Amino acid sequence: MTRDPADLTAADYLDGAREMTAANRPYLAHLLAEEAAQRTTDPATAAGIRATFPAPALSREETD
């Protein structure tokens, strides 16, 4: 189902962030959560969202 991004709510973005976390995609989860935080009018709620989905480290460590 395709939606117009303008119609998506903060809750929609948070759902996506949770899905990306479950799929081990932390960077995408962070981006979706950041969008949810920007769409939230309460600063405390936005801060909580950002704390729940922090930016992942940009460098990766390879394991053998």
Explain this structure.
It is a single chain. The chain has helices at residues 10-22, 26-38, 43-52. By secondary structure, the chain is an all-alpha fold. α1 (10-22) runs antiparallel to α2.
What is the secondary structure topology, with strand pairs?
Blueprint: H1 10-22, H2 26-38, H3 43-52
Helix pairs in contact: 1-2, 2-3
Question: What's a quick, concise take on this entry?
Answer:
This protein has helices at residues 10-22, 26-38, 43-52.
Report the portion of residues in β strands.
Answer: under 5%
Order of helices and strands: HHH
Outline the biggest β-sheet.
none
Mean pLDDT: 89
Share of helix among residues? 55-70%
Per DSSP E runs of 2 or more residues, the count of β-strands stands at 0
Ranges where pLDDT stays below 50 over 5 or more residues in a row are none
Rg (CA only): 13 Å
Structural class: mainly alpha
Kindly, what is the distance between the CA atoms of the first and last residues, rounded to a whole number of angstroms?
A: 39 Å
What attributes characterize this protein structure?
64 residues, mainly alpha, 3 helices, 56% helix, 0% strand, globular
